[in-house]
């Protein structure tokens, strides 16, 4: 019979091509299929080595091509002769067998059992090949098993982690068991043992194993998330648009052994996304600038710079910004501590011709900017019923009645509406009078650029409250810290040329900076100038209007004294006596 090979259909054939459509199976997971094929190949090679022979080669193809290349006559003759010989041989053999069976009368001689075949001797290099093949096959099976596991199919992440690490259900499921399972599994998935048979899924399986170990440690850890950082504050280091920089500083959370602090997370509320985005993660590390290791106890501050947060452009296009700081450990982060609105102080004055108009936002601007002062005051006295605490109630009410009587008499005698606002006016007036006296004498308090920025001694922390009976009775304050002061004759414009944009390259610019950016800004409550003392105490929300009124009074009195204006709320003996009352 002649076998005619089937002709492959081409584009011009009109035959049935449904087989072509059926020859495109769905491939949902190519990686797992490749791993299964590689595993089967390794097992076949291993079986061949154990049998002491080489892996099976491809079957030999019969040499029918040579027969087909001969002439038809020769092919026919050869086939006929072969067939005739085959038939003759078969018939003769059949006849001989029948005759021998019929005529044999002697018993069959028993045949001795064959000697056992000795196991093939496997050379040393073959043993190494077998071990390597076993390791690769095992790695391939582990990769297939791990990648099939889905986290959402388990009740808890820890249960999924134990399944990935192949920890038996009969053993104790604790952190140490998970760590042992991780080490055992990673030995199987090591690239030196797994080779290239596991394919690209090897790295993915190793990453899943690490995630499984972390899920077990988080799920079974006895740690608790730490508390929130305390007393979060900020100080402005530079308010120049495009180069703004300020420093966050906080106190560590309350120390609890079950809730240790491992790191701090600083985040910024990005208005473009409507949620806080991580700006920095602070962890213990060696600091080259300090030349020592910085522990987690030392991580209580962080400097935020506009140049380093260019990926949040919307953050710097608003009049205020909100930042969060959270303490964290392996169990998770603490509740985030939010800074009450950080105002860009110069945002309202960038278009003004000079620095004289710089100042903090007024009450309306504060409300439009979304400033919120939190309620942090303690319990009011009315929370303690009089019948339950008669002693405490009586001890506190008596001094309050005496102070109220003294205030009422002082206000009537001086014609002042409020002792607190009168005192705020007096303090602001004395600050303005001090700056005016220095500048009129041709003395600058001490303003110059240095490596840390612009150093300015003209601020309220360089005025102290005098003890009673010291100096003039007409003043509450005394100025100090004149070690950096200089006169107009000693002023060197070339030393301040780098800050000419702020007017510091002239004597008038130096005095203007001290009067506005130094004293006035700090009196208004701004942290633009880092005075070494931050506004640690915030007024409760119920007293926010009172705080704004007092700061406005401080600034108004300061400007009146600086310009040589009229003292609208002068000294009065009764008011001074009431102000000094305990």
UniProtKB/TrEMBL annotation:
CDD domains: DnaJ (cd06257). It comes from the Eukaryota. Residues 1-24, 54-110 are annotated as: Disordered. Signal peptide: none annotated. Coiled coil: none annotated. This is J domain-containing protein.
């Amino acid at each position: 019979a002649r076998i005619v090979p089937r002709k492959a259909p081409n584009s011009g054939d009109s035959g049935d091509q449904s087989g072509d459509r059926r020859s495109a199976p769905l491939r949902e997971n190519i990686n797992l299929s490749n791993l299964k094929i590689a595993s089967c190949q390794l097992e076949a090679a291993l079986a061949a080595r154990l049998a002491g022979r080489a892996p099976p080669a491809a079957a030999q193809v019969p040499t029918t091509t040579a027969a087909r290349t001969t002439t038809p006559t020769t092919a026919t003759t050869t086939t006929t002769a072969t067939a005739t010989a085959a038939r003759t041989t078969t018939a003769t053999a059949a006849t001989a067998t029948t005759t021998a069976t019929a005529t044999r009368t002697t018993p069959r001689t028993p045949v001795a059992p064959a000697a056992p075949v000795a196991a093939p001797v496997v050379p040393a290099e073959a043993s190494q090949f077998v071990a390597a093949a076993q390791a690769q096959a095992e790695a391939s099976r582990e990769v297939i098993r791990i990648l099939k596991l889905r986290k959402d199919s388990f009740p808890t992440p820890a249960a999924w982690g134990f399944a990935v690490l192949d920890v038996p259900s009969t053993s104790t499921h604790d952190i140490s068991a998970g760590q042992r399972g991780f080490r055992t599994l990673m030995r199987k998935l090591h690239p030196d043992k797994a080779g290239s048979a596991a394919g690209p899924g090897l790295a993915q399986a190793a990453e899943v194993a690490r995630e499984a170990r972390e899920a077990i440690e988080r799920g079974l850890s006895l740690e608790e998330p730490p508390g929130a950082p305390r007393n979060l504050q900020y100080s402005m280091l530079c308010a120049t648009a495009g180069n703004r920089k300020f420093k966050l500083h906080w106190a560590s959370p309350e120390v609890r052994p079950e809730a240790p602090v491992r790191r701090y997370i600083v985040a910024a509320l990005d208005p473009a996304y409507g949620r806080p985005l991580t700006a920095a993660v602070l962890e213990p590390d060696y600091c080259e600038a300090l030349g020592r290791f910085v522990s987690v106890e030392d991580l209580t501050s962080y400097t935020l710079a506009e140049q380093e947060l260019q990926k949040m452009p919307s953050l710097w296009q608003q009049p205020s910004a909100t930042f969060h700081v959270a303490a964290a450990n392996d169990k998770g982060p603490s509740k985030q501590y939010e800074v009450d609105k950080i105002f860009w102080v110069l945002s309202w004055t960038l278009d003004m011709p000079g620095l004289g108009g710089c100042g903090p936002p007024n009450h309306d601007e504060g409300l439009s900017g979304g400033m919120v002062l939190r309620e942090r005051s303690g319990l009011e006295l009315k929370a303690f019923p009089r019948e339950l605490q008669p002693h405490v109630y009586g001890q506190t009410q008596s001094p309050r009645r005496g102070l109220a009587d003294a205030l009422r008499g002082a206000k009537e005698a001086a014609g002042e509406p409020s002792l607190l606002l009168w005192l705020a006016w007096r303090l602001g007036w004395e600050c303005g009078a001090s700056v005016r006296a220095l500048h009129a004498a041709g003395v600058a308090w001490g303003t110059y650029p240095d490596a840390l920025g612009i150093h300015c001694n003209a601020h309220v922390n360089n005025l102290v409250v005098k003890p009673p009976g010291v100096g003039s009775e007409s003043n509450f304050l005394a100025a100090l810290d004149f070690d950096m002061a200089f006169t107009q004759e000693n002023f060197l414009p070339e030393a301040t040329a780098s800050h000419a944009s702020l007017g510091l390259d002239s004597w008038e610019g130096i005095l203007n900076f001290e009067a506005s950016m130094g004293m006035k800004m700090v009196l208004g409550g701004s942290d633009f100038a880092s005075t070494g003392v931050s506004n640690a105490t915030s007024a409760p929300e119920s007293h926010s209007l009172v705080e704004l009124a007092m700061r406005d009074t401080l600034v108004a009195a300061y400007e009146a004294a600086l310009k040589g204006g009229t003292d609208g709320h002068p000294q009065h003996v009764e008011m001074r006596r009431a102000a000094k009352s305990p």
